Amino acid sequence: MSGSTAATPFYFGGISAAAASLCTHPIDQQKYRLQVQTSKAGMLQTITRSAHTSGIISLWDGASASILRQMTYSTTRFAMYEVMQASWKTVVQPEGGKLGAGSLCVCAGVAGGLGGLVGNPVEIVLVRMCADGVKPPRERFGYVNVLDGLLRSVKEEGVRSLYRGLGPNVMRSVVMNISQLAAYDTIKSSLLATSQLGLKDDVKTHLLSGVLAGTIATTAAAPFDVLKSRIQSSAGKTDVFSIIRNGLKADGPLFLMKGWTPAWMRLTYVWPNTILMFVIFEQIKAQYQKW
């Protein structure tokens, strides 16, 4: 993140995100299931049914894909965000100083797009492993783990299948990165600059910044997230336009916000992925700088 006093190893972001995703996976799983199913079932009904039918441990189905996704997608977006900031400063702030909100958005958007491109193959396996629980047996992929999913996808559908839904996924990653990383940096800087609040650059400020950034990110990325998940969960030739047409017909415009509640809970509240990720990242970075 911005404001580092020492270079941060590129893999810290991926480690932080992977650790957080392991804790928040059950909620993430329900988000994908709500996004791809056509029923009106809510989050509590879906998660209760999953636990009752397959056991509590089934709530971590797809966790291997979630971890690898973060090690590819988040490692790339965090690392490139740092690289973009350093490069951008030489252009717009050659004499030093902090980047403005607009510059942070540019850096975060480019980093997010690259992260989405790198993470797309694993994202497909993750969506499919999570969505299997609400699909009829004949439509399930039945991947044993993330490596099995990647190998079978190539074998059964060809290499091009690994980039199904790439457009919506890259757009979702761009929007998510801008509204998460850039928003986090901007919010944290604003909170620290507001003397009346008396906040310091500590865990409390990181928590508050994470909650606000997570709420913004959830809302902004939701439509792209729904389109991406529906395309990637299908082995057929489903396209964006047919998904939008069918979704509007069945549920109206709000279908683009399906899964918002578990996505928001995952990012900000009950199992706070964004909060955990940023707090873990800040603590790892702080310890590294002490060394």
Automatic annotation (TrEMBL):
Location in the cell: Mitochondrion membrane
The UniProt entry annotates Solcar repeats at 8-87, 103-190, 201-287
Record membrane topology: Multi-pass membrane protein
This protein's name: Uncharacterized protein
Q: What PANTHER family has UniProt attached to this entry?
A: MITOCHONDRIAL DICARBOXYLATE CARRIER-RELATED
Q: State the signal peptide span.
A: none
Q: Which GO terms describe its biological process?
A: transmembrane transport
Keywords assigned by UniProt, alphabetized: Membrane, Mitochondrion, Repeat, Transmembrane, Transmembrane helix, Transport
The record's section on PROSITE patterns has: SOLCAR
Q: Which SUPFAM superfamilies match?
A: Mitochondrial carrier (SSF103506)
Superkingdom of the organism of origin:
Eukaryota
- InterPro entries according to UniProt: MCP, MCP_dom_sf, MCP_transmembrane, Mito_Metabolite_Transporter
The UniProt record lists the keyword Membrane: yes
Per the similarity annotation, which family is this? Belongs to the mitochondrial carrier (TC 2.A.29) family.
Report the Pfam families cross-referenced here: Mito_carr
| Principal place of residence | mitochondrion
Any one of the GO CC terms? mitochondrial membrane
Output the Gene3D superfamilies linked to this UniProt entry.
Answer: Mitochondrial carrier domain (1.50.40.10)
- Report the source organism: Naganishia liquefaciens
Q: List the transmembrane segments.
A: none
